[in-house]
Structures are given as structure tokens and as C-alpha cells.
Amino acid sequence: MTTTEDLPRLPFAPGANVLDIAPKYRELLADRQVTRVRTYAGDVAWIATRYDDVRTLFDDPRLDRSHREPAKAARVSQSQVLGGPSDNFDTEPRDAQVMRRLLTPAFSARRMNALRPKIGEIITDIMARLEAGPRPADLHANLSFPLPALVICALLGVPYEDRERFRAWSVDMGNMVDAPLAQAAMAEFSGYMLELADRKRVEPGDDVISDLVAAQDEWKLDSSYIGRLSTGLLFAGHETTMTRIDMGTVLLLSNPAQADALRRDPSLLPTAVEEILRVTSTESNGGALVRYAREDIQIGDVTIAAGDAVLLPFGIANRDDTAFDDPDTFDITRKSRVPHLSFGHGPHFCIGASLARIELQEVFSVLLNRFPTLRLAVPVEELQLRKDAITGGLKALPVTW
Fold first, then answer.
1. How far is 7 from 36, CA to CA, in rounded Å?
2. Angle formed by the axes of helices 146-156 and 163-173, to 10°?
3. CATH number of domain containing 280
4. Measured between alpha carbons, how far is residue 174 from residues 105, 139, 144, 318 in Å?
5. Which end of the chain, N or C, is less surrounded by CB atoms within 10 Å?
6. What's residue 113's pLDDT?
7. Which cofactors does it use (predicted)?
8. Which tops the pLDDT comparison, 262 or 16?
9. Domain count, the chain
């Protein structure tokens, strides 16, 4: 009989390089059962890896971010982002509806497409500075971080000159092992966003935070809620896209035939970006999102009890061979019969999906053509993951041309 001490524990031993998923995840996929694991924090949680199970659970209204007794909830890590329960158990369903009604217009596909020229200008400027700089260059520091930071700052109305401050807070509040550091960073970051919201109240602009402030009275929004929501948007808007630029570049440079095909045929950009999103995951946690059962949930032969934590590793579900043919192969012409789960599914589908897709399409359309001889400056085996950060990603991405 398996005891909790015998359960597999995160983080799992990594694969051969940053593009591989951990061998233990492959075992869990092959087993095809919803099972229990120990988290980074040492607590017990359920984990689903099958595509169908992960998609079903994403869509289940009985799974939410909040917990009736948050102090007693299993934690995934000490991170203040996706590390444990969030939101208010009694009001989360209503709050989620309000958030989507407030933010959907700001992040609509139409509005995001209108941003393409501005994103293109930002990319052109960044590429010119990259081209004029020394080689080898760290693409992570010179492109992957500044691009999404500039874009999300413009959209939210955050001064870009403060980027190093919120970058440091983002790194610290996503730290998976140092609870005091993560908590202090979250408090400082939220406080900064509250101060910014107060300034927008006096001097509003054409930006998302100004829109939230303007809607505060109508929707009876608490100021702290605006602070938390703005913090989450800024964090997600630059950290996750940054990781995809890094990993997408490694994928393309490790598969030169695919990169050449994309250079020859720009019409492949949309499917190439979807494939990058499918194949890349934050290996630090398998791209897992944590949810908590509001009531008992039966899935297959397993009963998830009310209050239990459930990990939904979308990056692993995207490697399920029952959903995707030859799932470990990077194929920019892939025509999948089901959508990847990198933006989630159902009621919590990522509201920034359109923005992320456009940024990735624009950056890879320019990068590959402006630097036709672009290549890794070190073997892929030498690239290092940020293992203590919830968003994963690379510590650095040395390239030359």
C-alpha cells in the first residue's frame, strides 16, 4: 500500500535539456491515471496528466482558485503566484464574472490586432539595438524581457521606467522556496499598483488601469482588488510571454528546417506560434495550475474530496499521444484535431491569449528574417532553467549570428 511518504515529489528530475519534459511526467502520462503527488511545499495534491482529464477539470465549475479554509489548504510552493489558494471562496464565481466583463473589451482580439503596428515598432527598435550590440548577445535580456514588458506597460498604463522594479518584484513573488521574500515582494508590488491606481483616479489615461478605476463605483470594486488584479495582469503579461519567446527561439534554432520553412512561408506564422505554445511548458512545474475542489468530484475511479488541491499541468497534457499525433515532434505545419491547453480551457481561459499570440507572431516574423544566420552560442544542453521561479523559463539565452 502506497503511503504519502512514498508519493513522487515535485520537482521531478529534468530531461536531457530544456526542451525535454521530465521522465517522471512521461511515466504519469503512460499510467493515464489521476494520481497523488507531493508538491514542492511537501503537501499532497492530485495531478492529472491525460489531455481529456486536464481539459475536463479545467472546465469543471467545482474547481476554483479559492479554498474555504485557505490556511489549511495544500500549497504547491511558497510562491505568491499559483503557489496556493487565492481569491475569496464565497465571492470568487461573481468576482470572476465581473473581472471578465471588465477586461474582455480591453483584451479583445480586435483591440489586440490594433496594437500590431505599435508592437511592430517596439520590435524594430529592439532589434536595431540588438544588431548594433556585441556578440554573442543574451536574447533573454535584450529581447525576451523588454518586448512584453514594454507592451504590457503601454496597455496597462504602467511607466516603463519602473520596469526594473516590477521585474524584481515579479521574480521574488514567484520564488517557490522563500516564503518571506515572496510575500514581501507581493506586498510591495500590490502597493505600487494601488498608488498607480490612485494617480489614474486624478489623471486618467487611455489604459486598462484607468478603465478599472473608472468602473470601481459601478461595480463596487474594493481598491485592494484593483491592486491585486493589476499586479496579476502585469506579472502574467510579461513573465509568461518572455518565457515563450525564449523557448520558442530555442525550438526554432534547434530545428533549422522548421525555421527555414517559416522564413520561406510567413503564412505559417499562426500555426508555428500555436506549436510553440503547445510544446513549451514551464518545466519547473510542468506548466501546472493549482485548483481546489469546492465539493467532491468523481473523475474515472478517483474521488477528489472537497478542499483537495488539484494540479493541472497543461504542458504535459499537450504531450498526450491520444490527443496529438507524435506529440514530441515540433511541427509548425501541425493541424491538431484538438486545441492545446497552454491558455487553459473553459471559465478560466487566459484573457490575454490574443495579446500573447500577436506578440509571438510579430517577434518571430522579424527575428528569423532580420537575423537569417541566428544560432545558439552554446550547446542547448548548457542552457539553464530558472528552477526556483514559478514561471520557469531560461536564466539566459546566448545567441550569435
1. 7
2. 100
3. 1.10.630.10
4. 28, 22, 18, 24
5. N
6. 86
7. heme
8. 262
9. 1
